[in-house]
Amino acid sequence: MLMKFVMPGDRIGLVEEYVTGSGVYEENGEIFAAVAGKVVVKDRTVSVEPVKRIPHINKGDVVLGRVVDVRNSMALIELARKKGFDRSLMHTGIAALHVSNVQRDYLKDINEAIRYMDIIKARVIDAENLKLSTKEPEMGVLKSLCSVCKHELVREGNTLKCPNCGNVEKRKMSTDYGKGKW
Amino acid sequence: MSEEIPRLIVDGKRLDGRDFDELRPIKIEAGVLRRADGSCYIEMGKNKIVAAVYGPREVHPRHLQDPSRAIIRYRYNMAPFSVEERKKPGPDRRSIEISKVSREALEPVILKELFPRSGIDIFVEVLQADAGTRTACLNAASVALIDAGVAMRGMITAVAVAKVEGEIVLDPMKEEDNYGEADVPFAFLIRNGKIESIALLQMDGKMSAEEMKKALELAKKGAMQIYNIQREAIMRKYSREEEEVE
């Protein structure tokens, strides 16, 4: 394995030598670095491990978002962050969370588990169409507001209670609910 | 302007004792701002400039989005206290023009197709101005973009050349800019340690074709020196990060 620090524009090799990976580009049969970082050659694929990574959404990623709309069988979620990155996403696409992917048990009405303006943590199960799943115990609602008075809800066992008006609600909660971290 | 024009060249040396082909002292530091995705602080002579890069990020307003590539926005701004006479804050004709030409210098270098629908915002703030702020800003922006991890074809390095008392000099200072006969800012695309093309070229004043050729050669020489300092700034920042990880 080759370990060399390169800057954008540095020539790494010829297209005959390697397959172009990430962080590199090809021009006139030559391969150049596109970012600053270390050159990594693996299985004949040459890529540059950048100094700072830009978050791309892939299948299996854990993401943070806010519910912007709840339809009959879907919740639409505006993505804000990818786990492991303290950097805004390239385009904050609207992802979809279908009732069938909310929890393991049968769920008839999505409003029993997710509501408008909830902050949720979810796993990407389809990166192209931005489909999410919250089936795992760590995934689900991290913060939610009372549907009556809009006060922040506090966890009480398996339910959520409003300290302001006493209203009790149900959600598919994440194990991180109310902890302020995800 | 009834003031007497000072002698700018005495015994083959310039006002600050530099040779004709000598740069002002340069200091570059990458990654100085915590909240920015990429940043850079540069000192070129008395110029003090901070550059910040944000993105690739969501574009607002939405109608500016390009579905096939990223859009680049560049803002050159001078702090009110950056010049001798307090400058009214906000953009003026000069800074709008500088922003435009600087953006156009960087645009073909950034691999925009990799970031569809997003925007890359570059902000450069002149905290203290001497002469050649637009070139210093481009140098800073280039380093900040690399610090942000934005994919680029190569590096942009900029330097100005001036004509002073009939002599072509590198990297003019304020007096030379004010009383000189011409000022020519250059920016080059440097790839694989070689100057590949001109990314920005402006001229103000009078110059012959011969002098222009000479100016280009001088600028290329200066740009290579700056290029090495830019590289070193990234390397320094990078090696520090290596230690933090371990």
UniProtKB/TrEMBL annotation, chain A:
Protein biosynthesis as UniProt keyword: no
Record flagged with keyword rRNA-binding: no
InterPro entries: Csl4, EXOSC1_C, Exosome_cplx_N_dom, Exosome_Csl4_arc, NA-bd_OB-fold, S1_domain
An MF annotation (GO) of this entry: RNA binding
Transmembrane intervals: none
One of the record's GO cellular component terms: exosome (RNase complex)
SMART domains, alphabetized: S1
One of the Pfam families matching this protein, by short name: ECR1_N
Subcellular location: Cytoplasm
Binding residues for Zn(2+): 146, 149, 162, 165
Gene3D superfamilies listed in its UniProt record: 2.20.70.10, 2.40.50.100, Nucleic acid-binding proteins
Boundaries of every S1 motif domain copy: 60-128
Top-level taxon: Archaea
PROSITE patterns: S1
Keywords for the protein's UniProt record, in alphabetical order: Cytoplasm, Exosome, Metal-binding, Zinc
GO BP term, example: RNA processing
Self-association and partners: Component of the archaeal exosome complex. Forms a trimer of Rrp4 and/or Csl4 subunits. The trimer associates with an hexameric ring-like arrangement composed of 3 Rrp41-Rrp42 heterodimers. Interacts with DnaG.
Role: Non-catalytic component of the exosome, which is a complex involved in RNA degradation. Increases the RNA binding and the efficiency of RNA degradation. Helpful for the interaction of the exosome with A-poor RNAs.
Family label: Belongs to the CSL4 family.
Protein name stated in the entry: Exosome complex component Csl4
UniProtKB/TrEMBL annotation, chain B:
GO cellular component: cytoplasmic exosome (RNase complex)
GO biological processes: gene expression; nuclear-transcribed mRNA catabolic process; rRNA catabolic process
Function: Catalytic component of the exosome, which is a complex involved in RNA degradation. Has 3'->5' exoribonuclease activity. Can also synthesize heteropolymeric RNA-tails.
The entry's keywords: Cytoplasm, Exonuclease, Exosome, Hydrolase, Nuclease
GO terms, molecular function: 3'-5'-RNA exonuclease activity; RNA binding
Main location: cytoplasm
Gene3D superfamilies for the chain: GHMP Kinase, N-terminal domain
Name of the protein in question: Exosome complex component Rrp41
Enzyme Commission number: 3.1.13.-
Domain Exoribonuclease phosphorolytic: 22-150, 154-222
Pfam families linked: RNase_PH, RNase_PH_C
Subunit structure: Component of the archaeal exosome complex. Forms a hexameric ring-like arrangement composed of 3 Rrp41-Rrp42 heterodimers. The hexameric ring associates with a trimer of Rrp4 and/or Csl4 subunits.
